[in-house]
């Protein structure tokens, strides 16, 4: 799919969903979707990419200064101390022989900062991943089948950075509303001298996070953004990647390319393709290192928190080069 009619989202989504579906590919009981492309040999390959032992956290901070502004009840984390050094110094904690301590708690939506979208996050016409009925998958008790805990040990693979902001953009950044096409992805990979291979976790840097750090959050959480074009659905399917992550709130270009649509690429990628999507990743330090050393692949460890029944999870991805 290389062109689209902005007035016909329903037809385009239906066509792409049918064409790029992975339903049944890994059996009727599958819970991992495209993470099945990561096998033991792929993890050994990824480990062999470590040469300098340098590590990069690809996570934003989890604090009250984050990007959220309340859309669909998503808020920034609220961090509260339960015990402090003041309590210890005053001796009111009730512990013996002078020992004291500190404890804290955090309350937050699971997708308020750097995170994975799980396979129970998005439905297509009432269908969840692998053709299951949405109402039997996610209930008030959570995701009963594809909860994020099923992926707790799976997301370790070769990571590939496609720094489209540097390769295609201006001063390392793409403007909001810029639709990244298959041609842009291919040109970026060629410029970096790297190939995208089966089982890879592809990290796409647009530079939007760089910009909002400089200028303020603005509408980062849900507003206009550079991102993948709906026309990349075929590439995402054919490349057989395990997952994809971006430095933006919503992975795909916003405003979306269809009139009156909302996240149409999600609707194809998650419930039909079984693709894991990472959002709000901080790729800047890694990108600078990749540019400095001319290497754009690395070992990537990005385990979600095994929160039983969750449809997404915070993550602190670690790239090791």
Automatic annotation (TrEMBL):
Lineage top rank: taxon: Bacteria
SUPFAM superfamilies xrefs: Putative cyclase
InterPro entries according to UniProt: KFase/CYL, KFase_sf
Pfam families on file: Cyclase
Full protein name: Cyclase family protein
Organism: Salinactinospora qingdaonensis
């Amino acid at each position: 799919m290389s062109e689209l009619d902005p007035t016909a989202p329903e037809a385009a989504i239906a066509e792409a969903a049918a064409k790029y579906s992975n339903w049944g590919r890994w059996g009727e009981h599958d819970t991992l979707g495209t993470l099945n492309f990561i096998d033991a040999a792929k993890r050994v390959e990824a480990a062999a990419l470590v040469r300098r032992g340098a590590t990069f956290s690809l996570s934003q901070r989890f604090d009250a200064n984050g990007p959220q502004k309340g859309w669909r009840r998503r808020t920034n984390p609220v961090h509260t101390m339960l015990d402090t050094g003041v309590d210890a110094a005053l001796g009111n904690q009730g512990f013996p022989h002078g020992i004291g301590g500190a404890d804290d708690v955090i309350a937050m939506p699971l997708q308020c900062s750097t995170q994975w979208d799980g396979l129970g996050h998005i439905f297509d016409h009432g269908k969840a991943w692998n053709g299951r009925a949405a109402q039997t998958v996610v209930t008030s008790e959570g995701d009963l089948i594809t909860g994020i805990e099923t992926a707790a040990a799976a997301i370790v693979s070769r990571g590939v950075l496609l720094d489209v902001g540097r390769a295609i953009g201006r001063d390392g950044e793409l403007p909001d509303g810029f639709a990244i096409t298959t041609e842009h992805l291919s040109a970026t990979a060629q410029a970096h001298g790297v190939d995208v291979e089966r089982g890879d976790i592809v990290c796409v840097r647009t530079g939007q996070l760089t910009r909002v750090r400089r200028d303020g959050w603005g509408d980062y959480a849900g507003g206009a953004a550079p991102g993948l074009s709906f026309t990349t659905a075929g590439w995402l399917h054919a490349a057989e990647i395990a997952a994809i992550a971006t430095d933006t709130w919503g992975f795909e270009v916003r405003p979306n390319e269809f009139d009156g649509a909302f996240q149409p690429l999600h609707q194809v990628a998650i419930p039909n393709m079984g693709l894991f999507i990472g959002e709000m990743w901080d790729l800047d330090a890694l990108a600078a290192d990749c540019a400095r050393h001319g290497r754009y692949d690395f070992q990537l460890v990005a385990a979600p928190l095994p929160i039983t029944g969750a449809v997404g999870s915070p993550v602190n991805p670690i790239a090791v080069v």
